[in-house]
Amino acid sequence: MEILNEIRFSMPSLSVNESAARAAVSAFIVQADPTVEELSDIRTAVSEAVTNAIVHGYRGTSGRIDMVVRLLPDREIYIRVRDSGCGIADVKKAMEPLFTTAPEEERSGLGFSVMESFMDRLSVRSESGRGTTVTMRKKLAAHGG
Amino acid sequence: MKIDIKSEKGTAIALLKGEIDHHSAISAREQLDSFIINMQPEVLAMDMSGITFMDSSGIGLIMGRQKLMKECGGRLEVRSPQSSIRRVLRLAGIERIVRIT
User: Fold this and answer.
1) Who has the most CB within 10 Å: A122, A140, B55, B95?
2) Of A44, A81, A136, which to mutate for an interface test with B (greatest number of B Cβ within 10 Å)?
């Protein structure tokens, strides 16, 4: 994978860091001059992935969330969100729309659906007891001028 | 996120400002539920014109308030969401359950 630019950061699984993660990713990808809609899509997908790590990965516990954001050739954005939490026993089921293990917290079960809809590619790798890695890619539209 | 609620003749308008995510939804939920339970409005309109970001936590926030309003004999409406917010609402199919204007 050819990488034109990259940032890596790590943060504790505090819910206040959901907005911090969005802000950091936004600040980095602005260099690729995304449209307002593309930026909004990416911010939303990042928010879902980080929230999943906090609410589901580290449910009732705490840990760190590691993020990598890359600018790839052809205006492609690569984002990886990794936690070392409880993992997902059945990834396929977890990715079904409206499936949630936290209805009492009013989780809608749409996190993966949003990531899939707002990004071009989504990959989820998980192992029970070892954590989850979410990788997303989105190609930004070519510049008009 | 900041919420200002104005109420007149059974209709309450909650003006929401800022970003809705899992973190901010927690306090918003408490504030709105407290108002619904204490004031029992016939209609609660969530004015989202001031919301600049919302992820699926906002869907949970709307659905939860819709359920509580229904239990209290009232109705929830969502007003004036920006286009990026409308995309999330559309993805969730929320317009089938809550009136969006």
Assistant:
1) B55
2) A44
Sheet holding A131-139, edge to edge: A5-12, A64-72, A76-83, A131-139, A121-127
Q: Which residue has the tokens 């504790």?
A: A12
Q: What distance in Å separates residue A89's CA from the closest CA in chain B?
A: 22
Q: Is A52 a catalytic residue?
A: yes
b/e map A18-36, b = 16+ CB within 10 Å: bbebbebbbebbeebebee
What is the ipTM for the molecules in this complex? 0.93
Options A17, A48, A70, A82, the catalytic residue: A48
Give the minimum alpha-carbon distance from B82 to chain A in angstroms, rounded to a whole number: 11
Alpha carbons A106 and B18: distance in angstroms, whole number: 20
Per the annotation, the verdict on A17 as an active-site residue is no
pTM: 0.94
CA distances from B94 to A131, B23, B45, B54, B100 (A): 32, 21, 15, 14, 9
SS3 B11: strand
* Amino acid code (one letter) for A103: P
Looking at the complex, does the CB of residue B92 fall below 8 Å from at least one CB of chain A? yes
**pLDDT 10s digits, A20-40:** 999 999 999 999 999 999 999
Which among A136, A144, A126 is positioned nearest to A76, based on CA atoms?
Answer: A136
